[in-house]
Amino acid sequence: MQQMEQNIFQKYLEGKSVFLDRSIITPHYLPSSLPFREKQIEQISSALASTLQCKKANNLFIYGKVGTGKTVTVKHVLQQLQEFVEEKQAPVNFAYVNCRNYNTKYKVFLKALGKFYPKEDFLGYSAAFVYEKLLQYAEKGQHLIIVLDEIDKVRDLDELVYSLTRANDELGQGSIALFGISNNLFFKDRLDARTKSTLLEQEMVFPPYNAAELKAILQERVANAFKPGVVSASAINLASALAAQESGDARTAIMLMLRAGEEADKLQLDQISDVLVRKAKASVEEEVILNMVSTLPKQQQLVLYAVSLLTIQGKGLQRLTAAGKSEEGVFFSGDIYSEYKRIALSLGESIVSSRWFREYINELDTYGLLLTTASGKGVRGTTTLIKLGFEAKKLRPILEKELMGE
Fold first, then answer.
1. What is the rounded end-to-end Cα distance, in angstroms, of the chain?
2. Is the pTM of this model over 0.85?
3. Would you kindly state where each structural domain of the chain is located, as residue ranges?
4. Residue 145: beta bridge partners?
5. pLDDT greater than 80 at residue 380
């Protein structure tokens, strides 16, 4: 009788690993302490503290680029709040909603009700009914916090924000406060004036981490995620420097170390060196950029999609750089604005003014997704020349999935 071959998965259990606990060096891990975010923790907890005195919390809007610790900080404070509320039996509750997954007013209400009524299912009921159920829960004297992560992803955002902020006018007791988290500092400015007037919010901005802060964060994670002595000090320094140079993104630094560790396991190495970190850089950069694109506000996605299409169609200029090299795929900002308007109209989206369009171009430039430069005199006057900062063929399917659900 022929002996059975070894199961193909057996080698993954038998092979040595540099990891002690791989989950700790993933972007989704929620650490017990958050270095360099003490000030933000204090501000958020202060905003929530009034609920413990049976008063409404102020609405709070939190901004910052990807990887600045917005979500993990809010979740850390909510976890502390949950523990305190359970101990003190305080009439406070909250619902965390990721609006990339729940991107309409109705879906947000359903998700929140799932937290407040865990044994009931309201799917299929009308929007008015689920809104009334939310009010009924608060009317019991409960002080609710609705946390909307990536709030700018909500399609009917005006209606949602107006409903939640005006809900308190209908409550005899209890309250509802709104916490919004967004990568886009300008999204609120596009809300209807009626909606903005109801907010009365506090705002805070999360700054990017610098290299020294990223190094300290990595050292703490590495100490618990990897076996002792596996990661060299120079590898940590390099990962921190690369992430700080790109955007001050803690997730990038963490993912660099994660991918380097996975490569070490794949090659059955005992040490994570600079070489492995540099090898991880290309794949992490692509992963971070594609993830960043999917989190962009819709209007910025439309602008980026316009540049991607024009690039693929080969409609750009060819020009010489200062170094004398030929550069293709360069566009006038006006040509991109025209293509953006065409796409927005075809998808039934609103068209922003040229001023807002320039804001989006500048924002995308800071992310490295677009590269901009002044044209200089003599080229349609003085205008902005724009070039895509990433491969158009890789961006296009991601953007089409986000914008068209394809």
1. 51
2. no
3. 38-205, 209-291, 296-404
4. 94, 177
5. no
